[in-house]
Design goal:
heterodimer, A: 322 residues, Rossmann fold, B: four-stranded antiparallel β-sheet, globular
Chain lengths: 322, 316
């Protein structure tokens, strides 16, 4: 299990450390897909990258909590052990397949490099594995693809190559940050099917970072909704869709164009996500929430509603449910 | 109904290959595209990357030269007009871009950017009058005048899109060409902008040519839809007909690829049919991806029929 335990992160804004992720706890288990959902600026990518301890050279610092892989703290590891785990047991798939691939090296040389970094293989063995991985991600002519350069590939093919790279050392967990956002819809659907297929076949734990509830509906077993640095609601995907308990979750699901009435005004959430450093006291969502009262502005509800699996951090959760 | 914008048999090719290529035939970006836009109406052009939808939008604006065909603004063909002649007519049609940040000069104050159109179309105004017009237009778009003397980077994505819309509206156009106006925004902000566009249309009788790859957004805002694939309009009709009774297999593939709205729909979930990629060089371009393709598709001329689709073996 990959676990974030009460994790807080600060980022550096003009030389000052500002809290950007606040007390986040998440459990990613083998064989499950966990969605981390929220709007831009809510801290979801920062949280995802922290799961591999990435971002630290860019001023991201852990201020509280821990990250545990099968009970072992990632902060107790030396650089070499961390390097083995990154890409070895935990792998990442990024949103922008073009920036994540190096344009001056062929697909084959990049893939073989990753394989040999983690697995004890000679060049020929690694090459054979590269071909196998590319076939696994649905690429025809895998042999020929090895000698091609990223700019010769379409967006969908690049994302497949990145998924193949993530799978190179047979990891247990994959962190996918908006893996389909930059792709055309029909290609999106295929990449989703591919990820789910690999996830089931290899019993992967998959963390899916997204702003898109449609993607959550398609892929996830569990969902955590993030707002202004905090998890505000978490639970099984069906519970979240059938009985969203936090006003933010309800509002966010309500403004999806998929569920709108053509010709009618769409429900909106007034205002915007406050950036790190400008979070209000009490509930972070209170200034935008129709149900907020003085108590919300003073207190942070610590998981005010929890029925064992479904938690929501809201003082008015019973009113929301009605 | 007054037709405020019409395209007749537009064609556009780009030079092949780029700077290392040996020349040769150009890549056809738009082939024989025709459409009409009535006053007060929203026509959405949908398609995936490379479909030609943005090229079509740019030709409609006359931001790109048109290879052949007619582009009518208020019944006047502007396809061959000079830049100078176009300038005096541009108040008819204005554009809103996907990323307003990229289209706003970072060193100009917001009010100066928004007021730019007035320099061409209302030369006689004093500075105070121009500021007044800007404040009124920003208010229409849901922004108060306290931001007028600030710079683009001081605004959020949603606010910048409102500024982009104000900048287009200040010359009181009849037509807005909106190129993926909400694609870069979070859903909550996207909903605000869609509401604003609907409200402006109702109050001012605006016509929208709405370019998008997002069918859910199009379903919400469009009266009529034109679906583009590989440079051609392959199906067109009312939004209701295209979403509920589409005939072209490509339209069906796009509809199948829409995100589901609830996990229970997973059981109905299917992969978009046909292959991932690929376009046929002759006949129907969708052949390599189409599950219904037959031999006669290879010589099909791809013209829209009277029912508004270009297909020999349509979905029922």
């Amino acid at each position: 299990m990959l676990e974030l335990s009460d994790l807080s992160l600060s980022v550096s804004i003009q030389g000052t450390a500002v809290e950007a992720v606040s007390g986040v706890s998440l459990k990613l288990e083998a064989g499950t897909v966990l969605g981390l959902v929220g709007e831009s600026g809510c801290g979801k990518s920062l949280t995802a990258q922290a799961m591999l301890r990435l971002g630290e050279h860019q001023g991201v610092t852990k201020t509280r909590g821990d990250i545990l892989l099968d009970g072992q703290s990632l902060f107790a590891l030396d650089d070499e052990a961390l390097r083995r785990i990154r890409g070895g047991r935990l792998a990442m798939v990024f949103q922008e397949p073009m920036t994540a691939l190096n344009p001056v090296f062929s697909v084959g040389s990049q893939l073989i490099e990753v394989i040999r970094l983690h697995l004890d293989m000679d060049k020929q063995q690694a090459r054979a594995r590269a071909v196998g991985l590319l076939q696994d991600v649905g690429m025809q002519d895998a042999e020929q693809l090895l000698s091609q350069y990223p700019d010769a590939l379409s967006g969908g093919m690049r994302q497949r190559v990145l998924i193949a790279m993530a799978m190179a050392a047979d990891p247990d967990y994959i962190i996918a940050d908006e893996p389909t956002t930059a792709l055309d819809v029909s290609v999106q659907k295929r990449i989703i099917a591919l990820l789910l297929n690999l996830q089931k076949k290899r019993n992967l734990g998959l963390l899916l970072v997204t702003h898109d509830f449609g993607l959550v509906a398609e892929m996830c077993d569990e969902v955590a909704v993030m707002y202004a640095g905090q998890i505000v609601e978490a639970g099984p995907v069906k519970d979240i869709f059938d009985h969203p308990a936090h006003p933010y979750t309800r509002a966010l699901m309500g403004c999806r164009p998929e569920v709108s009435d053509p010709g009618r005004l769409m429900p909106v959430i007034g205002g915007q996500v406050p950036p790190p450093g400008r979070w209000p006291a009490g509930c972070h969502f209170a200034p935008r929430c129709a149900l907020a009262d003085d108590a919300c502005k003073a207190n942070v509800a610590a998981d005010a509603w929890a029925d064992g699996v479904h938690i929501a951090r809201c003082l008015h959760v019973r009113e929301v449910a009605q | 109904m007054t037709t405020v914008l019409a395209a007749r048999n537009l064609h556009k090719s780009f030079a092949a290959g780029g700077m290392f290529s040996a020349g040769g035939a150009g890549k056809k970006a738009v082939v024989d595209a025709s459409f009409e836009l009535a006053a007060g109406e929203t026509l959405a052009i949908v398609g995936e990357s490379g479909s030609g939808k943005s090229t079509t939008a740019r030709m409609a604006m006359r931001l790109l030269p048109i290879d052949s065909g007619e582009m009518l603004w208020n019944d006047e063909d502007v396809s061959t007009l000079s830049a100078h002649a176009l300038r005096s007519r541009r108040h008819h049609i204005q554009m809103v871009f996907q990323d307003p940040f990229a289209s706003l000069n970072p060193r100009m104050k917001i009010w100066e950017s928004v007021a730019e159109g007035l320099r061409v179309h209302h030369k006689g105004l004093t500075r105070a009058q121009r500021r007044q017009r800007v404040a009124e237009t920003l208010a229409l778009c849901g922004l108060d005048d306290s931001g007028m003397d600030r710079y683009p980077h001081q605004f959020s994505g949603g606010q910048r899109q409102r500024i982009g819309i104000a900048r287009a509206l200040i010359v009181e156009p009849k037509v807005l060409v909106l190129d993926e106006p909400v694609s870069a925004l979070d859903v909550s902000v996207q909903a605000q902008i869609l509401n604003l566009l609907n409200q402006l249309q109702r109050e001012r009788g605006l016509s929208y040519l709405f370019i998008s790859h997002d069918l859910s957004v199009v379903r919400h805002i469009a009266d009529r839809v034109a679906v583009m694939f590989a440079g051609r309009i392959v199906e067109t009709g009312t939004a209701e007909a295209v979403f509920h009774r589409c005939r072209h297999p490509y339209t069906q593939a796009l509809l199948d690829a829409r995100p589901i709205s609830h996990p229970d729909e997973r059981i109905h979930n299917r992969l978009p049919m046909g292959a991932d990629e690929g376009v046929a060089e002759s006949g129907c371009p969708f052949q390599p991806r189409c599950p219904f393709a037959q031999a006669d598709c290879a010589s099909f001329d791809c013209r829209l029929n009277a029912q508004g689709f270009a297909c020999l073996h349509p979905c029922s």
